[in-house]
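Open question from group meeting: does this chain pack into something compact, or does most of it stay loose? Before anyone orders reagents, we agreed to write out a predicted structure and look at it together. Recording both the input and the output here so the notebook holds the full record.
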Amino acid sequence: MRRDPEGMPKSKTFEDLSLEPYQDDRELWRWLYQQLRMAILDGRLRAGTRLPSTRDFADQYGVSRGTVVAAFDQLQAEGYTSVEPGSGTYVESDLPSQLEVQNAAKAKRLASAREHVKLSKLVARTIANVEMMPASRSVGRAFRSWEPAIDIFPVELWAKVATRVMRRAPRSLYGQGESLGYRPLRVAIAEYIGSARGVLCSPDQVLITTGAQQGLDLMSRLLLDPGDLVWVEDPGYHLAKHAFQAVGAKIVPIRVDRQGIDVGVGIKAAPNAKLAYVSPANQFPLGVTMSAERRLALLNWAQSSGAWIIEDEYDAEYRYGGRPVASLQSLDRQSAVIYIGTFTKMLFNAIRIGFVVLPEALIEPTAKLRMILDRQSATLDQAILAEFMTEGHFGQHVRKMRGIYAERLAVLREASEKHLTGLLTVEDAVAGMRTVGWLQPDNSDEDVASRARSAGLNLFSVSNFTMKFRQPPALILGFAGCEAKELQRGVSVLASVLRKSK
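Structure tokens returned:
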């Protein structure tokens, strides 16, 4: 290999490398390796330059020889340097030319160009109005509607089940799993939703997903072409709308009233829609239950038009008057309904396990689509949840939470009657983890919600989830994940915000 005829540079050359001072928690050898790599990349160490011996380098920079050896070895392993026996260590002479002279100005221009990368038109449109959900730095803040009572979840019991599963798991459980999901969990889910929600399915129809959102994404990819029309509840779940838009479908907002989605409005607006998305047991965000008349009308429309229905049920188990209403899927005799559920609202958000009950015709294509996207959900997590369910802990937890959430709802209503009379009328929720508080007609719910968030409350306006059909001004008030004292504090803060706006 041809080398620089000058041989090894004078020590002064290495003194002029301007290595940044070591002042962080990185291992010393890694700091030295990164500094030398940058010197090679930006041209301070030219191709063909011979490096000092590890002993000389260590003496010059006041570090141990072992530190230098580790840094040199890493540079050699990544191809930045090579060793010629009896001669020394050299900077590779055949590195890509663009790495040799990347001065600061050029690097800045390149970085700037990357900041203005051109996204695909479809993705750019899809993410334009997406709001990122914050991580849970704390839990139990009023009036957070997207988290269950994490403070009450039986962590110790979950840990015991998890430890037992991990200890006894066969080695096959650490290998490749089924795209549809871990079969014992699919069996447990089919049995549970059959008894609790009246869902008619076999374990073969159950697909395990990474939360409900992945179920929406998979069904969107599987069933929709660009330009297809989709009925979406208005107001409704915005991330469902984004999932359909991500594949190029056209959203048709359908008004929601006290009986749920207005099927007649949908038929007039888009009789040939390919799909309808509904949350019939506990509509998001209004909390209404779809009437029997509307359910039958929706099924009749799907049958006559050949459309699909996605039924999204994420907290329907929590019903505070009588038993949970039967699922829409239980009335379906034409295999038109796709039932989606999740454990994130039933257990804890971080579990990220959901499921889809597929009509039989969709089982094979869905499994194949899942294979090319992410193969499968985490098998060990599924195995832990399966054990948690089959031992009866899941059903017991749901029953316990139903009672606690009913108590917290009562606290919210009592505190609201005491402090918010004349300012906000809180609905007596029949199900779920949240309710709606109706403002006076002259209020802007978006403005009130913004000022409430500035005051430390976690709430959103109903208007934030509307598209075409405006609702009277209202706030979404989560109560399930908040202790009684926090709910009372939240009501007091909200009352102060509302009084200042009068």
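Observations to bring back to the group:
Confidence is low (pLDDT under 50) at residues 1-13.
The chain has 17 helices and 14 strands.
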